[in-house]
Amino acid sequence: MLLGTHAPKLDEKGRVILPAKFRDDLSSGLVLTRGQDRCLYVFSSKEFEAINETIRQAPITSKQARDYLRIFLSGASDEIPDKQGRVTIPPALRTYAGLGKELVVIGVGSRAEIWDATAWTDYLANKENDFSEISEEVIPGLF
C-alpha cells in the first residue's frame, strides 16, 4: 500500500527518485499517466493491468467513457525504475502537471500521485477545510 507524503526533486533530466517506501511496490514496473486535478497518477504495472480490465468494460457507445479513456490512456507511459529508484517523467506529462523542480509525491493507497509542490500546497489549503467538514458518508462503509 502506498501511503504518506514525500518531497523529492525533479532532476535536470526529468527524473524523480521514488520514495524508498514505494520502491518495493513499483520496482518491477509502473505506469505514469494524467491524473485528475493536474497531478500525475502512478500505478504499479499490476494495478494498472487491473484498471485496464475494468476500462475494457466501458461501452464504446458512451461519449463520456470515450473522452475519459482518451485523456487517461493517451498520456500513459510505462516505466521501470533504475537501480537508484529513479524514473523518468516524460516531457508531456511534466507539462500537463506543471511540474517544476520541487515535487510532492503522495501515497493514495493503490496509487501514488506526483504534484508540483506549490500546486499541492494550494490544493491542500483549499481542500483541508472541506475534509474536516464532511458530514456524510463519502466512501461507503468508512464512517
Automatic annotation (TrEMBL):
Record keyword rRNA processing present: no
Residues making up the signal peptide according to the UniProt record: none
UniProt keywords, alphabetically: Cytoplasm, DNA-binding, Repeat, Transcription, Transcription regulation
InterPro entries for the chain: MraZ (IPR003444), MraZ_C (IPR035644), MraZ_dom (IPR020603), MraZ_N (IPR035642), MraZ_sf (IPR038619), SpoVT-AbrB_dom (IPR007159), SpoVT-AbrB_sf (IPR037914)
Start and end residues of each SpoVT-AbrB domain: 5-47, 76-119
Name used for this protein in its record: Transcriptional regulator MraZ
Pfam families documented for this protein: MraZ
GO BP: negative regulation of DNA-templated transcription initiation
GO terms of molecular function: DNA-binding transcription factor activity; transcription cis-regulatory region binding
